[in-house]
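S1.2 Input.
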Amino acid sequence: MNRVPPHLYFVVSAIFHYLGPAFAVLLFTRVDVLGVAWLRIASAALVFALWRRPWRLVARLDRRTRTLLVAWGAVLALMNSAFYLAIDRLPLGTVAAVEFLPVVALAAVATRSWRNGLALGLAVTGVYLLSDVRLVGEPLGFAFAAANAALFALYIVLGHRVSRLGDVSGIDGLALAMAVAAVLAAPVGLADALPAFGSPALLAAGIGVGVSSSVVPYVCDQLAMARLARGTYALLVSLLPVTAVVVGVVVLVQVPTAVEVVAVALVVVGVAVHRESDTAGEEVRRPAEPGGSRAGSATPPATSPPSASRRARRWASARRGRPD
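S1.3 Output.
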């Protein structure tokens, strides 16, 4: 997997990020919003459980890692619920634009050169032109959008830490966190999701939402985060509105305007201009391999110093060979 550029993993994640709502359209008319959110989380947790069997890892995790994964699971539960509550009241483009704002702060913190500052400025300008945000509508919708935005930034921070863990791989950590999210979201979403269990079509749509919105993009996120600095990943989030335009053209035949084309070009140029710092690669740690070793590790085995008895024998040999 290391042969695949990490930026390509992010592009795949961004594309699937917008395929999920296409499945959710069928569900919104028959299942309440929080029920759809729980179906997304629970179906993703089920897929991860069958694929990774994460319960085998719990016993060997230390307290710090368990706390991190539980916190990440709580963020996943709240973020997905807030996202669906927001898009139920506001246009998806507006929610996406609000979601990008705290991520800009993450990217700005990591900006340490004029080149990366220029890249960030180009990306922000492009997103602004694409989003065409109008602060009108339901105040509660903006409250949920703001909560989702803050949680999305926290998702990046915690997800980046999980991708660098030494005792568990990022994908296995994601599987555990998603199981936690399904449990935490059940009290507010399970009852609303019950109508879907009586219809195979609705249940299939719920699974489709989970796979396309949580399994594929979150796995790609982990594969990208494991090899990208957090600031670089935060800047790449500006590609999300771009992929929305591309999906709109290909799937919905929505031809972009001239302003949207310019906006897409600004974001693409901004991402192309950005360069990771020289120290970014040093902090990247490979996902854990079975047995606790890291893939690609070139660290030679440690050699123990010579014991006292060996040193004494060498000294005696040297004395015997020395002339009186």
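S1.4 Remarks. The radius of gyration is 24 Å.
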